């Protein structure tokens, strides 16, 4: 945790700020280990202040390294600004999280002091995109737990069951194995419903002889996992479904092979997109190839046409191409992958050959 404090300090210096206010709770947890629901930190070259309210007095003492100066106050912003020097000071804040109302209040609390509020962009998010070995192990554990839940629920048979019951069972199976919960509401989408990339599971029985897209993940120990498998239910499968599956699998495996430190998210996205385009499905792959996963299920870096950043060792990303044919059906195959210096490591373990389930 103190390595993270030093990393933030280096960024604060690089951006020529005097201090950075960290108010987003996920960023705060990453930085300090604090898991409560109310808190803020101020990080400067010499300072490491942490403010929370009375309810978290004991918890903060247990969770934070002694390097943090802990302060207890109900009104966080008042305490944050009361503790600032008279200036001159450039105080960075995270413009993606601080609301307009909070910004106005900060201005009022600063008053006549020579303190400038500076939009500091996503300093902590950029650091969070590169995971340390402990974080990689936690994400791997979440992925393995999610794999086991899938085996339990899907292995027991899904034909004739409502999509939403299967989704609920996945959540319960993950919770029973120790997950804090699902990292997002699971998607279970059969037949034509699978053509909606973010389908909401319905109270409709899953038929025989169709494809079913299942996208789920666990939240474990503060970290998320994310995986998709498309399975076939026993019965006569439309040959077109099989063809789409084979195309998505080829695209997924080719893009996966391209994941390593060096290429940009855009370049890896293009590998999958070329295969899907060549198969005549260019207009049926309308989302990006993947996204970063960490404490949140969607974070940086992006693997998409907009992904300008080069992948670096320590990134954890999904590789999830899909083909969605409106009115007919869809296929998506998603793996969760750690980027290494010379390649990658897939963190989930379920096979990808088209599996037929009952
Ligand atoms: Zn997913
Ligand atoms: Zn995903």
Automatic annotation (TrEMBL):
- Please name the InterPro entries in this protein's record: Creatin/AminoP/Spt16_N (IPR029149), Creatinase/aminopeptidase-like (IPR036005), Creatinase_N (IPR000587), Pept_M24 (IPR000994), Peptidase_M24B (IPR050659), Peptidase_M24B_aminopep-P_CS (IPR001131)
- Does the keyword field hold Hydrolase? yes
Instruction: List the Pfam families.
Output: Creatinase_N (PF01321), Peptidase_M24 (PF00557)
Domain named Peptidase M24: which ranges?
137-341
What are the GO MF terms of this UniProt record?
aminopeptidase activity; metal ion binding
Give the Gene3D superfamilies listed for this entry: Creatinase/methionine aminopeptidase superfamily, Creatinase/prolidase N-terminal domain
The lineage's top-level taxon is Bacteria
Domain Creatinase N-terminal positions: 4-130
Alphabetical keyword list = Aminopeptidase, Hydrolase, Metal-binding, Protease
Protein family? Belongs to the peptidase M24B family.
Task: Please report the name of this protein according to its UniProt entry.
Answer: Aminopeptidase YpdF (MP-, MA-, MS-, AP-, NP-specific)
Species name for this entry?
Answer: uncultured Solirubrobacteraceae bacterium
Q: Organism classification, top ranks?
A: Bacteria, Bacillati, Actinomycetota, Thermoleophilia, Solirubrobacterales
């Amino acid at each position: 945790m103190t390595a993270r404090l030093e990393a933030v300090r280096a960024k604060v210096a690089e951006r020529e700020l005097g201090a950075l206010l960290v108010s987003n709770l996920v960023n705060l947890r990453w930085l300090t280990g604090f898991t409560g629901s109310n808190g803020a930190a101020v990080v400067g070259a010499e300072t490491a202040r942490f403010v929370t309210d009375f309810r978290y007095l004991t918890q903060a003492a247990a969770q934070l390294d002694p390097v943090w100066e802990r302060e207890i106050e109900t009104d966080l912003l008042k305490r944050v600004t009361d503790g600032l020097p008279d200036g001159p000071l450039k105080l960075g804040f995270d413009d993606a999280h601080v609301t307009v109302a909070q910004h106005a209040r900060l201005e009022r609390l600063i008053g006549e002091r020579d303190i400038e509020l500076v939009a500091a962009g996503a300093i902590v998010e950029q650091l969070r995109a590169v995971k340390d070995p402990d974080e990689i192990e936690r994400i791997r554990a979440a992925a393995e737990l999610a794999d086991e839940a899938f085996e339990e629920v899907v292995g027991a048979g899904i034909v004739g069951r409502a999509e939403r019951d299967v989704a609920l069972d996945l959540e319960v199976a993950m919770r029973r194995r120790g997950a804090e919960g699902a990292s997002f509401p699971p998607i279970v989408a059969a037949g034509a419903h699978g053509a909606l990339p973010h389908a909401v599971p319905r109270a409709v029985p899953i038929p025989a002889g169709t494809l079913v897209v299942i996208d789920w993940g666990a939240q474990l120990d503060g970290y998320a996992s994310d995986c998709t498998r498309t399975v076939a239910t026993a019965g006569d499968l439309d040959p077109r479904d099989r063809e789409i599956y084979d195309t998505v699998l080829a695209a997924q495996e080719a893009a996966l092979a391209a994941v390593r430190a060096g290429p940009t998210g855009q370049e890896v996205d293009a590998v999958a997109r070329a295969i899907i385009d060549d198969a005549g499905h260019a207009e049926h792959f309308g989302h990006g190839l993947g996204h970063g996963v960490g404490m949140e299920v969607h974070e940086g870096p992006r693997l998409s046409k907009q992904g300008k950043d080069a992948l670096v060792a320590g990134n954890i990303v999904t590789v999830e191409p899909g083909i969605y044919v409106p009115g007919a059906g869809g296929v998506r195959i998603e793996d969760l992958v750690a980027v290494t210096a010379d390649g990658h490591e897939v963190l989930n373990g379920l096979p990808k050959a088209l599996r037929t389930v009952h």
